[in-house]
Every structure is written in structure tokens, then in C-alpha cells.
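User: I want to check something. If I give you two sequences, will you return the structure for each one separately, not as a complex?

Assistant: Yes, each is folded on its own. Here is the first sequence with its structure:
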Amino acid sequence: MPTNRTFAIAGAGFSGAVIARELAEAGHRVTVYDRRDHIAGNCYTQRDPETGVMVHVYGPHIFHTDHERVWTYLHRFTRMMPYVNRVKAVVGGAVYSLPVNLHTINQFFGRTFSPREAEAFLREKADLSIVEPQSFEEQALRFVGPELYRAFFYGYTRKQWGVAPTELPASILKRLPVRFNYDDNYFSHRFQGMPENGYTDIVARILEHPGISVQLSTELAPRDAASGEHVIWSGPLDDWFGQAHGALGYRTLDFERFGDQGDFQGNAVINYCDVDVPYTRITEHKHFSPWERHEKTVLYREFSRECTPGDVPYYPIRLVRDRGRLARYLDMARAETGVTFVGRLGTYRYLDMDVTIKEALETADQIKLAISERRALLPLYVDPD
């Protein structure tokens, strides 16, 4: 097995770009393909020509992580500016802070609880008869009780996922969705920020290496790689196999732009939790760059729906009906040679940006190690189960 290899990478998002850079720096030749006419995948950002606002074209991406290696890696290619994501929610005509915290509880119930009092109050509300929650709804009812669940979780979740919360696994709601203090930072990670010049600039700098060639508006179809090339596949897992067992379920997003004057909502993200409001949230993109000043604004209403052929897949659904089909695709993947599956779509998991970058770095580490030890490259370096 040669020590210098050639790779074909499907997808110029973070997974593909980071792996390409790591392999190129190790002396390998890499060609990155993307079916779209731009790099950066769904993290793509660009300046709006009318307002000058940096727009997150495929929806907001706020960087947050506890992985120091990932945070340090990003700083090779950008300056991360301080940014705290403070999400608000409109429920029944009132505005609340998210995640649910002591202020939210006191405002919603019209009380002035201390942390200990609020915790005891919600313990009385919680349905402790649900010992082992099986669904999203049971998980929420056990943690916060019926009132907060119906107000902040039921409607938003139904719109976001397109099914009743009773059909979603409890694992989606992994942690207690309540804080018994006044902390309204949406994330709790040690490192948080926003790239000064947007995400597209980061990916462009990562891909800027003499060992990397980028082919945009060019789809790398399965088994299109040249002789001797190893494929890194960050496209949909089922696409690699021609959907031999049927299509896996994905959600996609539609964005409706409206207005451009002044400051519409005074915040980057406001969720609309009532089920009779068709959109899930309104995003105001100039607030994602608080170090900049813009007279006009860019606003989007965001709608979630099932992904159909030709749509951009955003995240896998992983409902019960997908589990058997996914297991069959994973069995096929583990038996493949000449390809490695990576990223949110390639491993059919919901991944935040930091985990995507972390796994890309680790996958590149393992590929380089396997080459140095003259071992075969594996199709999966993570456990998607």
C-alpha cells in the first residue's frame, strides 16, 4: 500500500474540508467535490448585498464546544468573536427566556420563587409515575410537568419534527430542560463564539492548500472515484447505496424573507412555540454579529418539513420506522471497501458543528495512522448506532 494516497471527498462542508486539510498536510492529494456552487455546506454564510449583513443562508449556526482541540483548530483559520446565544420564545402572546430558567418559571406561573422553591414546585408538577420515559412527551412530562411541556415543548417540537412528540424517542430530550437560576445563555459549553468573517471564510481558508483541489457544481456519484482513490463520503448514507432499502427520513427547512427596516425584534432568535403559528422561529441575522452596525436588517421566518427529492437535507429524523432500515444500511456500510462515511448525513446522526469537526479530525488521525501502518482504511471510524 503506497504511503502517499489520493482521496476523493464528497462534500465541501466542515467534515470534508477538515479531513481534506489534514490529509493534504500529511502529503496526500485530495480532490473535494460539491454538488452546490459554493463551499461550506449548510454552514454557508455570505454578505447580503443590500444591507451588508452577514447572513447564515441555511439557517443560524452558533459555535459552542467543550472540545479544546476543536476550538484551537478553528483559531488557526479565523478570529472567533464573543457571542452568547440568548433565545426568546413567544407563547400565548407573551415573551419568555429560553432555555426554561428561573425567570421563565416565575414569569409563566406569576410567582417569585427562589431556586429551591422553584425546584420543589416543579417536582410537584412532574409526572413521576413515568419511571422509564419512552417518548419525547413522557420525558418532558417527567421533568417539567404538563403546563411547561404544553407551552414550550409540544407545539415547537411538533412543528420541528412533523410528528407528535409521542412518536419521538425520549433520547431527543437528553437533559433536564430547566435551570433553577437566571442564566439565559442557551448553551453551557466552555467555548462559545461566532467567526468574525463568517463560516464560508473559515472553510475557504481550511481548503487553501496546494494539495487540495476543489470542484464545485460537480457531484461525486458513488463509485465515480478514479482507480486507486479512496472516497470520503459526507453525503446521505442511503444515497451511496442507491437507496437499496428505501429512503431514510430527513427534515429540511424553508426560509421566508420579509422586511428590511431597522431592528425588528431586538434579538437574533425568537421561537414561536404555539402550534397554530406555522413557522418555528424568526431569525434576525444582524444580531449574530453584534460587533457590527447595520441600519437595515435581514429577517427570516423558518419552516420545517419532510425532505423530498431535490431538497437540501438538514438533519436525520431517526424515528422508530427508520431504525430497521438504518441497521441494514449500516451493515452494508461496514462491509464496504474504498470508502469512509463521515458527518451528519454520512453517518445519519444529528451532529453539532463542533462534534462534526472533532470527528473529522479524529477520522483523519485514524486514516493517517492506518496508512503509516499499511492497514486497510475503514468505512466507519465512529459508531453511528
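And separately, the second sequence with its own structure:
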Amino acid sequence: MQTTASTRPRIPALDIARTVALGAMVAFHFVFDLELFGYVPPGTTGEGFWRALAVATAGSFLLLAGVSLWLAHGAGIRWRAFARRFAVIAAAALAVTIGTYVAFPEAFVFFGILHSIALCSLLGLAALRLPVVAILVLAVAVFFAPDVARSPAFDAPWFWWTGLQTVPLRTVDYEPVFPWFAPFLVGVALAKLMEGAGLWARLGTTHPGAAARWVSFPGRHSLIIYLLHQPILIGLVWTATQVLR
């Protein structure tokens, strides 16, 4: 029998996975801040390893969001809980937009990772009842959509959330629906497969040791850490700059 979302225990393995993603994010943003203050060469975070880390980190956050959507609503959409969580993420995304507009008005975040998670969560509700194969086919189509559907018809700013525009954009964080809805859908499909194999039930009955509980702690508070880590990092780098220079 499938466990309902309301009775499903918290799964430490997912919190640990979120902690790993948060660690990668903090490492990337620390180097980004060093680049911002001139400690590493310009363009360092836009190519090579650091660019790959940024893409992998964003993809992992979206994949885990897809997994979480299935775990929370796979047995039936709990609309009140969904609306509450959606409102929190949307409010956090708005805060990021306002904060980055103040700090980087020429490259502020108008559709970053939180914006993408919010919209993908809304769109993802329609995929919950689809067969796994159909979800994966849809993920492939979403991933390659920018290669085949990019058009000047999407160049107006109100279409930039799609990722199908032809004009270059300047922003410090950008995860549009196409192609970033793809890892979210993969997360939904993966969660469904694991449900069918009984893996979530098994993971939910594990009792992590003290070390695992410490490692999973950041993952249980990922949104707060996401919102606070950059102001803290920038403050630390700025302070070190004032001391060293």
C-alpha cells in the first residue's frame, strides 16, 4: 500500500542530498564573490569547472524539488499544503529579485533557481499522474526545446521565463523553464520509480546516527540557507578586503 504524504516520515537521505547541493552552491558563490572583488581572474566562474559546478548544482536542486513534489503529492495533491509552500518559495524568489536589483541593477535575478522551482512545481502537478516513460519523454523534449523552438517571438521581456528568446540576457542567475524543467521532471520520474520499488518506505525507516543528523541539518533548512548565505559571504569578503587593503 502506498504511504500518504501526510504519514510519510522525513527521509534523511534527501536532506543529506540537499546539504551536498548547498555545499556546492556555497563553494561556487564564494568563488563568484572572490571574482567580484578581484581576487580571481574575471570570467573564472563562467567557464570550465566552476561553470560545470553551477549547472550541476542548479540541476540537482531542481531534481530534488521534483522528487519532493512526488513525495508530498504523489498520493494525491494536498492543495492547501502546496499553496502554502508555493507562496513561501514565490515570496523568497521575489526577495531575491529585489535584493539583487539593489545590488546588481544591470544584472539582477528576474528568473533564478527559486523562480524556476516555483513555476516547475506548479507545472509539475500535471505530470504526477503520467507514466514514468511519458515523464521522461517530456523531460527530453523540454531539454532540447531551446535548440528547436528558439524564436524572436519570445524576445519580449515577459517571455524570458521560457528561455526561448534569441536576445542575450545579462543576469547573475537564470534557470528558465526550457531546459530547466527537464531535471525537475526527471526527479518526479525517479521518485515514482523508487516508490514502485518500495525504496522510499525503506529509506523512511532508517535511523541515522549523530553524524548523519548533523550532515542532514542544513538540508532541512535549505531555503533559509539559500537566502542568507550570499549576504554573509559577501560581507565576509568585503570585510577581508577592507582589512587587507
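Because they were folded independently, the notes below concern the second chain alone. The mean pLDDT is 93. The first helix runs from residue 12 to 36.
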